[in-house]
């Protein structure tokens, strides 16, 4: 466990270094006078002149050699000095916290709905099999072949444009959350209901489960005492693998529904070449990803006394 | 009172009959042993009696439990309280995430209806009775196979069922642990009835009582265990009994050995820093057959790897008196399917080796004949031949290299008893003819006694 | 060699069909995918334009084929590159000095710290609209899967009786790779490759969809979906085309990768 946490810490450092380096390369490779643009974002287009640009140039080390500029870039990053957005001029760290709240709300709601869909369907199809199993297999296969933004697009067309049940995009009311969360949930449930199915089938067919019945436990007692936990261990470990789907889904869904989360912020920043915001958003996504992974590790460790998942 | 009475019970998969109609009655206080080889349909009989056949199979016939006629579904109400079943492979039959004591206490609580505190006490008492009081907190992956089986038996009996069906209760256990398990089964069944399903003649002999012999789903003979074992009527029963190493013929062997081949002084073997066995001293001569015995986990396989130079010794000295090249120090494996690549045909594998070492091809045919391998067998891959054939193919490859030492690591333990007898005989004979020294590892002292010139015993 | 299940065969058949379309479609209709014809916008499929035209009057039959070519090429390149690198490094990590294994493990841990799509997005930001940068970024993520599987299988096999036996018989490392490691890796490789191809295509479409991938006027499935979305009520078939193409090609790959029903 300690080794795992150490590994996660290493990942946090790697995320910061990787994102920092990539955005640094991005900055150096951009055409035009970077200092001028950053100065403009800080002081407003009107107030900026070559003197202000020079000050920025010196501060960020843009006039120095690549190596010392790189060093300067990192010291800023480590002191959580993420700068201001080149577009809005607002401090990046402030908007990040705002976005993080929205992203977590979306991710949380999506995962919760996904579990509500996937757990009963997965267990039922494992227990009864037959047509329910085949229907679910087909539905899941089709659903997985369709990228998450297509599911979202179809949801928009059906629920928002045709039936006018929910708003197309935006945020503010609970109704705004429904379609994005549902889209995320469907794409997650398409995979996880099959994993729950497979694991439940494995447990129901296992020798120890049969023995639990043979030694006298009722169907329900066997499921409660020997089923749930044994199914949960691999399913939770799988959640860790699915986190990547969650994060990637969040990026796409937020862009589609203009949900003001980190993914939306990142895509927009890239489109607008807003380097400080790209760095901040990518960093936040990476940190969020590592933290969620750590939570899954801890859950696995708690559920499985044999030592948990080897990530 | 008859506890179990079945009449013309048969098992079918679609239109194929897997188990021919069979009838039996078990009275209170009786012990019944069903003897047969793996794949003979004996496990199906147990499942058909319990009423837990896989959905793809169908049972026909009459089952009466405690003089009530009950269909498969109704029998579920009897599980644990009147009739209990012990599945094969104990390490799979216990919940992998739960401690032994917890599982046992749960059975006392939920099945026998004891209060929570009382159930804990009962579990403690039972574990202590089995000498497992120290292991109550352990999960199945921390228990040995024998311990796991004893916990499983305790769980099966905890609900108070007078009738126990035990399906291969000793599979994969060392002889010493096997005896403990059989003893526990016998004690537990004194008040009720015990039905044991086994392929092991020794177990059948220990349990005694009544016996039925089954082959390919058909009943061959039944009667008193002692009578059948002493005077089998059917040829198959006879072959099965003869295949028990205890009954193998004693032979007079040529005990003139050649020069010393390898000697070890004060050898310690093990993994990492943990020594499995220390202070080994012996010398092996050319053409000598030496048995290696010891309980599982005492380092029998590690000894082989150490002697062959695959594994580093932890201490002591190994001296090779022969300067034979490395490829003449060979090994046979417990599971031949794990030791041979299944990616290409056996012929390709053989050719690979023949061309690597420039082996004289004219030696292949006679050796194959001696080993009873047909040429067309080589066209298949390792998954297309039986375990016995594959082990003989492994022997062919090893012997073509003209080995000076052959370390045979339980080479016959995965084979059925009749094949086991043939293969082990062949191994010793062919090695002797080729002047190759053999170290034969087995957990079965009887087999070592019959096949080897002398024995090295490892103890922890 | 590889025994394919019915599911896999149907996936393969579908994929062959899609490849045939992508390659042969331009031979069947004259013109090209970028010529605009503003007098012929949003026409429904007809004898001249088998799949209709888009909002600039471009021939959809040809545009869709071009988009498919791009997607399939990306998938093929990513799969080949990451499979070769992943398997080689994986087998080496399992069989060479422990320090090499630790270094590789560290690198993998670092790359995995960032969700794949985010990494690709940053790469796409550095050189916008570049096919080759996308290819490098996607391969950078995908080789890890091959690496991990090859390493795990090889690690298990190095301790196996089969490999030990071959070593005792005097066989060299290349032989052991050929006879033991590769045959064990191969079936897994096929599954990962199929899913990897699907993911590469999805990844590129996702980038096109958020407008940071391949740039117009090049035809790309994700990009086409966004471009056509505004016209969904006037010309539903137009939006349906890239959607269906994307879903079919991903489905074909996923079916192919599925050995047994999951």
UniProtKB/TrEMBL annotation, chain A:
Stored Pfam families: BPD_transp_1
Main location: membrane
Transmembrane segments: 9-27, 104-129, 141-161, 173-192, 231-257, 277-296
Gene3D superfamilies to which the protein is assigned, alphabetical: MetI-like
Keyword annotations from UniProtKB, A to Z: Cell membrane, Membrane, Transmembrane, Transmembrane helix, Transport
InterPro entries tied to this protein: MetI-like, MetI-like_sf
Topology in membrane: Multi-pass membrane protein
Domain of life: Bacteria
Domain ABC transmembrane type-1: 100-296
Location(s), subcellular: Cell membrane
PANTHER family per UniProt: DIPEPTIDE TRANSPORT SYSTEM PERMEASE PROTEIN DPPB-RELATED (PTHR43163:SF6)
Family membership: Belongs to the binding-protein-dependent transport system permease family. OppBC subfamily.
Protein name: ABC transporter permease
Lineage, top ranks: Bacteria, Pseudomonadati, Pseudomonadota, Gammaproteobacteria, Oceanospirillales
UniProtKB/TrEMBL annotation, chain B:
InterPro entries in alphabetical order: AAA+_ATPase, ABC_Ni/Peptide_Import, ABC_transporter-like_ATP-bd, ABC_transporter-like_CS, P-loop_NTPase
Subcellular location: Cell inner membrane
Entry keyword set: ATP-binding, Cell membrane, Membrane, Nucleotide-binding, Transport
Molecular-function GO term, any one: ATP binding
Highest taxon in the source lineage: Bacteria
Membrane-related topology note: Peripheral membrane protein
Main location: membrane
Location of the ABC transporter domain: 4-241, 262-460
UniProt xrefs under PANTHER family: D,D-DIPEPTIDE TRANSPORT ATP-BINDING PROTEIN DDPD-RELATED (PTHR43297:SF7), OLIGOPEPTIDE TRANSPORT ATP-BINDING PROTEIN APPD (PTHR43297)
Family: Belongs to the ABC transporter superfamily.
The name this protein goes by in its record: ABC transporter ATP-binding protein
The organism of origin for this protein: Marinomonas ostreistagni
Automatic annotation (TrEMBL), chain C:
Subcellular location as annotated: Cell membrane
SUPFAM superfamilies: MetI-like
Membrane topology: Multi-pass membrane protein
Domain of life where this protein originates: Bacteria
UniProt keyword annotation of Membrane present: yes
PROSITE patterns: ABC_TM1
Similarity field: Belongs to the binding-protein-dependent transport system permease family.
Protein name: ABC transporter permease
UniProt source species: Marinomonas ostreistagni
